[in-house]
């Protein structure tokens, strides 16, 4: 089928090899960064809901990173159909679970910072470890029950032979309809979290800058750092997740209708590349922890990780409020 699509100017076999290479290139730095983040977060004392969310985010990113080789192997030429079927029913489902848990937690963290800095009166319950644990558990349970378990149950058909749409061929009719619905649900999650993050961090930046100015501080460098941190969070979220969510829904429509044509091939390549782009978030999240979490920076310094660099960073930011 891939050769038939050469007339479209697209060779799916070559495109798949490129995707394989991209995942393997990303895997090593992602694994090292997330092991480091997991080790540091394990050492952090769980004193607030923020640390609870941080630890859950690290867990989701690390699990997602460990799935990379399985996804890459799925695209290897001559990959066993059993491996591909396993990925359709289990591997890919867990992959998407981690991605959306990570995304929702980023939104929850921004709300947590908003209520601590902008609306401190609302932090009495929301800043507790118990509250953070309950919220984190609800996120995992809701996504497991709406995204993971139904998808696994509805992806249980055994296709007669290999097809470029193996995953869709394994779904029941109800599973195909559910797949369209869950795709729309995930797109809604993305846009809601985007609005929350944008609103919260812009308000936080304004409040912190106003606080600096009201205290008589003329530290313009500090204001620039605050603006840069907010900008980085928004840019990382947009660059990583926006292209994929723009591409995913039209691709799924073609996928469900079982149309294998040039338009489907173009969307397939675009979907795979933008999905890989969204996974780069697992490398960028640890850098965000360093920029936004003072406790994380201090623990890195205590554990002598990048100690020379943090010896000045920790001092420079000793008065900062973690965004």
From TrEMBL:
Pfam hit, one: 7tm_1
Protein topology in the membrane: Multi-pass membrane protein
Compartmental location: Cell membrane
Keyword Heme found: no
PROSITE patterns, A to Z: G_PROTEIN_RECEP_F1_1, G_PROTEIN_RECEP_F1_2
GO cellular component: plasma membrane
A GO molecular-function annotation: G protein-coupled receptor activity
Domain G-protein coupled receptors family 1 profile per the UniProt entry, residue ranges: 33-289
Membrane-crossing residue ranges in chain numbering: 20-40, 52-73, 93-112, 124-143, 182-205, 226-246, 273-292
Domain of life: Eukaryota
Entry protein name: G-protein coupled receptors family 1 profile domain-containing protein
Organism of derivation: Coilia grayii
């Amino acid at each position: 089928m891939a050769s038939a699509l050469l007339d479209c100017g697209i060779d799916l076999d070559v495109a798949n090899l490129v995707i394989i290479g991209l995942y393997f290139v990303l895997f090593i730095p992602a694994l090292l960064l997330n092991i480091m983040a997991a080790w540091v977060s394990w050492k952090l004392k769980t004193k607030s809901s923020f640390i609870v969310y941080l630890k859950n985010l690290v867990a989701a990113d690390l699990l997602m990173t460990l799935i990379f080789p399985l996804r890459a192997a799925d695209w290897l030429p001559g990959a066993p159909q059993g491996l591909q079927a396993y990925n359709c029913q289990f591997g890919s489902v867990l992959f998407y679970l981690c991605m959306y848990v990570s995304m929702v937690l980023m939104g929850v963290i921004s709300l947590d910072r908003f209520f601590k800095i902008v609306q401190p009166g609302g932090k009495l319950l929301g800043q507790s470890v118990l509250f953070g644990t309950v919220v984190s558990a609800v996120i995992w349970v809701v996504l497991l029950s709406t995204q993971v378990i139904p998808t696994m149950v509805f992806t249980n058909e055994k296709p007669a032979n290999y097809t470029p749409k193996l995953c869709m061929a394994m779904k029941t009719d109800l599973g195909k309809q559910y797949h369209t619905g869950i795709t729309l649900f995930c797109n809604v999650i993305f846009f809601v979290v985007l609005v929350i993050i944008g609103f919260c961090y812009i308000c936080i930046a304004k409040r912190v800058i106003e606080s600096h100015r009201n205290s008589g501080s003329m530290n313009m460098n500090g204001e620039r750092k605050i603006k840069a941190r907010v900008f980085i969070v928004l840019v990382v979220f947009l660059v990583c997740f926006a292209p994929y969510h723009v591409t995913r829904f039209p691709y799924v429509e073609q996928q469900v209708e079982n149309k294998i044509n040039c338009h489907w091939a173009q969307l397939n390549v675009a979907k795979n590349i933008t999905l890989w782009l969204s996974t780069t978030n697992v490398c960028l999240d640890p850098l965000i922890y360093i920029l936004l979490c003072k406790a994380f920076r201090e623990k890195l310094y205590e554990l002598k990780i990048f100690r020379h660099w943090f010896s000045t960073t920790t001092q420079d930011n000793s008065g900062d409020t973690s965004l």
